[in-house]
Design a protein that fits this description.
Layout: E1 17-25, E2 30-36, E3 48-53, E4 66-71, E5 80-86, H1 94-97, E6 105-113, E7 126-132, H2 137-142, H3 146-151, E8 154-161, H4 168-179, H5 184-190, E9 191-197, H6 208-213, H7 216-221, E10 230-236, H8 238-250, E11 264-268
Parallel strand pairs: 7-8, 7-10, 8-9, 10-11
Antiparallel strand pairs: 1-2, 1-6, 2-5, 3-4, 3-6
Helix pairs in contact: 4-5
The chain binds adenosine-2'-5'-diphosphate.
Length: 272
Amino acid sequence: MSDLRSSPVEAIANPDAQTVTSVHHWTDRLFSFRVTRPRSLRFRSGEFLMIGLEGEPRDGKPAKPIMRAYSIASPSWDEELEFYSIKVPNGPLTSRLQNIQVGDQIIVRPKPTGTLVTDALLPGKRLYMIATGTGVAPFASLLRDPDVYERFDEVILTHTCRTVPELAYGEELVTRILRDPLVGEEADGKFRYYPTTTRQPSSHMGRITDLIQSGTLASDLDLPPLGLDDRVMICGSMGLNKDVKAICEAAGLQEGSNAKPGHFVLEKAFVG
Ligand code: A2P
């Protein structure tokens, strides 16, 4: 346990405070952490929450918490919550959040929301999960939810990062899925993982948008081109979301929402 007095993130008197139970630094740009789960919290795999830290009091005014949207990376049945984060240099939240240690406290608002949920998709044959960077987080939740394997015959996760070390969180996730007592057996027959890098050599190189459009993804996985049997969940940068949305629309797919399920859904990965 860390010594809270010397920790950069101190114990807070906030009704939404939760305690950090583990922290893992994957690279100098990426880390994940787990916190205790609010007792009343129920969520659907793929949803996000507002999490943050108390701010500093300024000009005699009381501190205002610094909160950001974070996808929950743990499945809905997990007794803790997991999050996966980028470290933004000088970022108001992540420049401090990256220093959290076991025993520290963060604020977790127990109000889940989001559109990366199976309820926002029409029934289909094949589900593509298209992620870049920390956009893999909601899929870490969904891929450990039996519901996903009940609804689809095939589930394909693509994860694009700049470098090979940045794929590590996704790689460990895949190992965990295949060993998972709840979904491992189903996943073994239905789940496929397609990691790609853009700035360092690896077995699949390039932006996923280019790999879809060139037909490389389909030929590598021996799948038909994107079509009306497919459902797509997209989570990455604004550019990625916009470009994959255009590819989906060109294939005749329509965007879904909680109110009106469709063929594809998207959410912006946490950036600030
Ligand atoms: P690239 O290296 O060509 O920019 P980031 O670390 O900036 O969030 O990016 C994560 C990954 O997403 C990178 O590999 C990046 O490729 C890729 N990427 C960024 N924007 C797009 C886009 N519009 N379409 C496809 N891939 C993208």
